[in-house]
Design a protein that fits this description.
Blueprint lengths: L10 H10 L3 H12 L4 H12 L2 E2 H8 L3 H13 L3 E6 L2 E6 L2 H15 L1
Antiparallel strand pairs: 1-3, 2-3
Length: 114
């Protein structure tokens, strides 16, 4: 950290901040990760997949949206490793990537319901 004069910050606190602060690149990645949750369509897709693995056609039907809109949002979710897919013949089924996603959704909802 830069040498600055602080009015109320102790040197031990500055050291702790310096140790805990992730590198800039990780902070950028984290910001991109959380941006994904800023879109209600993506959140709806995640909640659908929380209940069941589904194909684009079924997700679109459940949410009353076009398949192209769902495919676009699934592409975003896949890029950030929030969903995974598997092929069964010509059909691709999507599901949540791991239990972390369930935890994030659950804790976020708990927080806003407090």
């Amino acid at each position: 950290m830069e040498e600055n004069t602080y009015i109320h910050v102790k040197e031990t606190v500055l050291k702790q901040i310096d140790e805990k602060m992730p590198p800039e690149e990780e902070l950028q990645d984290l910001a991109e990760f959380f941006k994904v949750f800023g879109d209600t369509t993506r959140l709806k897709i995640l909640y659908v997949l929380l209940c069941s693995e589904m194909c684009v056609y079924d997700i679109a039907a459940v949410l009353g949206m076009s398949q192209s809109a769902i495919s676009h949002q699934l592409r975003v979710l896949k890029q950030l490793d929030l969903v995974k897919h598997r092929r069964d013949g010509k059909t691709i089924f999507y599901s949540l990537a791991d239990s972390h996603i369930v935890t994030i959704l659950s804790q976020g909802l708990d927080h806003i319901e407090e």
